[in-house]
């Protein structure tokens, strides 16, 4: 693995790479763009494929802004199931998992991905949280690599309950769909779990922070990949140096931000702190207009510059927010995860003592304040965050990931 991360290009000639990110989620889209930028600088042709970039929930406009060709490929209707999850919680998720045809028609998704592969004729397919990309690549006879955080890979590793749930879903539903596709395209049957465990996987995490799952045979922990968005500073930025303690609030694109704000306004509004909120378009004008006077809002902002003036961060447990925002600035954090993967990531902060964690659905505002006060006044949290700061700042995750992909293409 160390040879792959040395910075030398393994691929001898320019190649064509096709990315299939989960275009509804900011983190999964942005980190693919960062890897693609490195590959493009090295002379490779890079393409993306995903759903409608003009949809209000899509993040694929960032792909176009970065100058990459974007082809259509159908994606699961994540905005629909996310809306139900926000309203109904895990009950909705269980229903959705056994009714995939309504929001994730696998055959149609794979067929559209095959069309994109046929148009691009890539040397390598890369999927990020796009589980069907490996199936499409296998049918097309193209090598495939994936991007998945190592802690998330534990969900597909025994003895976790999610592994057995996934195995059951695959046995009784997904394998039959794939088998019909394999027969249609005259490809030998392939076990999806064997394919997953053997394909090259990139983990955009800090080496040594936790151990990688052992069942995956070709996993590479390359370092964080999640830069600041190219966004202007908010018009209230100059206020941040007036001596008022600042707390940064961000929930990425998959947090329960509006619910959190409505539940905590009365309590947080009474504190002698300023709360800086990047909404990511998740908060209505009505909710923002109802905010206490110590709240400041902007849709996007360079988080690193806000955190340079922050005493703590409240966030959804997202990987990018943890690394390139809070840890890079040496700022302790309180995670308010909305789903299980975010909880897994948040637990890293709890174990390493640079963060705390609590429920966002059943938020207790008084407990929230106590946790926030601990982060701001107990030195161990800031000291622990600062311990990882230089490692995150110096990580070269996108270049290391590009090295891994070039090694795959170089054979």
Automatic annotation (TrEMBL):
CDD domains: GT1_Gtf-like. Transmembrane segments: none annotated. Coiled coil: none annotated. It comes from Halomonas qinghailakensis. Residues 284-390 form the Erythromycin biosynthesis protein CIII-like C-terminal domain. This is Erythromycin biosynthesis protein CIII-like C-terminal domain-containing protein. GO terms for molecular function: hexosyltransferase activity; UDP-glycosyltransferase activity. It comes from the Bacteria. PANTHER family: GLYCOSYLTRANSFERASE, UDP-N-ACETYLGLUCOSAMINE--N-ACETYLMURAMYL-(PENTAPEPTIDE) PYROPHOSPHORYL-UNDECAPRENOL N-ACETYLGLUCOSAMINE TRANSFERASE 1.
